[in-house]
Design brief:
- This protein is of the alpha/beta class and 468 residues long.
- The protein has helices spanning 19-29, 42-48, 63-70, 81-87, 113-125, 142-152, 182-187, 199-209, 223-254, 258-266, 287-300, 304-331, 359-369, 383-390, 406-410, 430-436, 452-456, and strands at 9-13, 34-38, 75-78, 90-93, 129-134, 167-172, 192-195, 218-221, 340-344, 373-377, 400-402, 415-418, 442-445, 461-464.
- The strands form three sheets. Strands 3-2-1-4-5-6 form a six-stranded parallel β-sheet, sandwiched between helices. It has a six-stranded parallel β-sheet with strand order 11-10-9-12-13-14.
- Strand 12, helix 16 and strand 13 form a beta-alpha-beta unit.
- Helix 1 (19-29) packs across helix 3.
- The relative contact order is 0.09.
- Bound molecules: nicotinamide-adenine-dinucleotide and uridine-5'-diphosphate-glucuronic acid.
- Nicotinamide-adenine-dinucleotide is lined by residues 13-19, 38-41, 44, 81, 94-97, 114, 117-118, 136-137, 175, 177, 179, 285-286.
Length: 468
């Protein structure tokens, strides 16, 4: 029974890229708390429970080791949602919040149907005092909606034992982890945010984080600041990338080198050196959707100038992706018909198997459109995923194959296009690869990671983003 605000049992709704790793780290650092991660997706839960730890649904460095240590001890993955809700003192909502595809706000607003469904399920099945924590990224004021739904179920308290009467507290604690470094980000966060207006509930969540996070890194704010800070953080990060990508194009025209410019401006501590790597445009499931959401909110409150300011960050990102495929086509005599292009990397960044909004999708689609044949190599992305991402309505057979090695992909290729900054691409043997390619051969390095010294000695033509 939940007599005080002490947390003994946690439920997390949503076993995805956030719910899975976040709860794994909580379970590791809080051995006295039972953690249940639940999901409606049976396959996903089965993968989390797979005996083979290489088959976990998410690839994240360091994740499988902790799952191995905690699973079936105080960390459980289950589809038993209602029971887990009923037993929990604290419930994290970590469900997906994609951009709405239809109805009011389509193409901009976040689709909150899964959040609302979760809130209703919590309202229905929770017993006694329950703290509900927003972990998903949500529009400002969503906590109000969740609270209204939860409180409307208090009418069911009539005739129930005092201890079982429903009582809800809503907090916001957005997640700032980045994929590929999720475990390190969770173990050593720059800060943890807790938004809420109830001191006891806030303290209960703070006590959990205090098991491994220093007190001075835990920031307490009101609910709305917390919700808005998450959208703002992602918008600022994305804005830095679009800013440097816009400069990369100017570098290519003027003889400046974007790497040198990044270094020069990044040494100014007011600007900071992180998130200044020019590339093929940002991808990932969140930057675009969160900025779209910020634009929607701004317009909703009549702040069109604010909305259009952030809209430019997205416009530059799309432009950068389009620009890359145009450069490739132009350099290959304006014609890609039946040319073999080796694509190195398909994930939206290194150290993840996630391809959501990967710049590789738009770039590969453009190259296919020009008639190229693609041989794609990515150490973590499966063929089925690539096919799903590149499939267009009109096409049954895509003009592509998946290679098992870089060499297989490069064999007989007219060009290599580096799209993800995987470590193994930084130390390729260019002497060997050059012999495999058709001449005149090209390497297009959209990530600025290729060892140019070695490559140039092979006679391969070379283009790197942000240099002329
Ligand atoms: P995801 O799609 O990987 O996982 C969400 C999971 O929730 C899915 O497995 C889905 O089946 C499950 N789900 C949906 N509705 C459900 C319901 N009613 N009951 C039970 N399970 C349900 O998404 P994600 O990448 O983990 O993102 C989740 C949230 O976290 C989003 O709001 C996102 O913006 C935010 N976020 C993501 C990241 C990231 O790196 N991916 C980082 C910070 C914040
Ligand atoms: C991002 C944020 O970094 C996290 O703090 C946030 O929690 C998360 O979004 C979220 O809300 O989902 P993530 O998208 O996983 O994390 O990865 P990032 O490292 O931010 O990279 C995003 C994209 O920007 C990638 O395509 C990456 O290649 C690109 N990028 C990043 C650059 O092009 N240049 C850079 O300098 C940095």
């Amino acid at each position: 029974m939940k007599e005080d605000f002490k947390i003994k049992n946690i439920c997390c709704i949503g076993a995805g890229y956030v719910g899975g790793p976040t709860m794994t780290v909580i379970a590791k650092n809080c051995p006295n708390i039972e953690v249940f991660v639940v999901d409606i997706n049976e396959d996903r839960i089965a993968s989390w429970n797979d005996k083979d730890f290489n088959k976990l649904p998410i690839y994240e460095p360091g994740l499988k080791e902790i799952v191995k240590q905690c699973r079936d001890k105080n960390l459980h993955f289950s589809t038993n949602i209602d029971e887990s809700i009923a037993n929990a003192d604290m419930i994290f909502i970590s469900v997906n919040t994609p951009t709405k595809s239809k109805g009011i706000g389509a193409g901009q607003a976040s689709d909150l149907k899964w959040v609302e469904l979760s809130a209703r399920r919590i309202a229905d099945h929770a017993r006694g005092r329950t703290i509900v924590v927003e972990k998903s990224t949500l529009p400002v004021k969503t906590a109000e909606t969740i609270k209204t739904i939860l409180d409307s179920y208090k009418k069911n308290n009539h005739g129930i034992k005092e201890k079982e009467k429903k009582e809800f507290y809503v907090l916001s604690s957005p997640e700032f982890l980045a994929e590929g470094t999720a475990i390190n980000d969770l173990e050593n966060p720059d800060r943890v945010l807790i938004g809420g207006d109830d001191k006891n509930a806030t303290k209960a969540l703070e006590d959990i984080y205090l098991n491994w996070v220093k007190k001075e890194k835990i920031l307490k704010t009101n609910l709305w600041s917390s919700e808005l800070s998450k959208l703002t953080a992602n918008a600022f990060l994305a804005q830095k990338i679009s800013s440097i990508n816009s400069i990369s194009a100017l570098c290519e025209e003027t003889g400046a080198d974007v790497k040198e410019v990044s270094k020069a401006i990044g040494m100014d501590t007011r600007i900071g050196s992180k998130f200044l790597s020019s590339g093929p445009g940002f991808g990932g499931s969140c930057f675009k959707k969160d900025i779209l959401n910020l634009i929607y909110l701004s317009n909703h409150y009549g702040l069109e100038e604010v909305g259009s300011y952030w809209g430019k960050v997205l416009e530059i990102n799309e432009w950068q992706q389009n620009r890359i495929s145009k450069v490739i086509t132009k350099k290959l005599f304006g014609n890609l018909y039946k040319k073999k292009l080796s694509i190195l990397g398909f994930a939206f960044k290194a150290n993840t198997n996630d391809t959501r909004e990967s710049p590789a999708i738009n770039i590969c689609k453009d190259l296919l459109e020009e008639g190229a044949y693609l041989s794609i190599y990515d150490p973590k992305v499966e063929l089925e995923q690539v096919q799903n991402d590149l499939k267009r309505n009109s096409e049954k057979n895509l003009n592509l194959t998946i290679a098992k090695t870089v060499e297989e992909s490069a064999n007989n290729a007219d060009a290599i296009v580096v799209l993800t900054e995987w470590q193994e691409f930084k130390k390729l043997n260019w002497q060997t690869i050059a012999k495999l390619m058709r001449t005149p051969s090209w390497v297009f390095d959209t990530r600025g990671i290729i060892n140019t010294k070695e490559l140039k000695s092979t006679g391969i033509n070379f283009w790197r983003v942000g240099t002329s």
